[in-house]
Amino acid sequence: MSAKYGTATRPTAEINFPTNETGEYGPTENVIVRWEDSQYSFNLFQSSLSNTFGLVMFSKRLEAKAEAAIAKSLKLEKQEDPQKEVAHVKKEADDLETSRQENIKAFLH
Fold first, then answer.
1. For residue 9, what is the DSSP state?
2. Which residues pair with 25 in a beta bridge?
3. Which residue ranges make up each domain of the chain?
């Protein structure tokens, strides 16, 4: 690894990646050793759940695109929050009115 990707470093870094098909993220893992060049990053970690090791490889170009997409998604989500809250309040009011109408009908019959 060192011959191709440079001297290993001991970064203060963590990685987090999906652990199953649903895309849910597992615990954050501490990177023990990292090898990298301008295009790739190889990260060795020891699992916090078992006594095993793993090696995760990242494409720096794709990672940058993913980070940009995540940032954009979070920004859009934040912009939509007020609209979602208005819709939620309206739905609650509509549900209360529906319940009120049903109670009035039940009371009159």
1. B
2. 18
3. 2-108
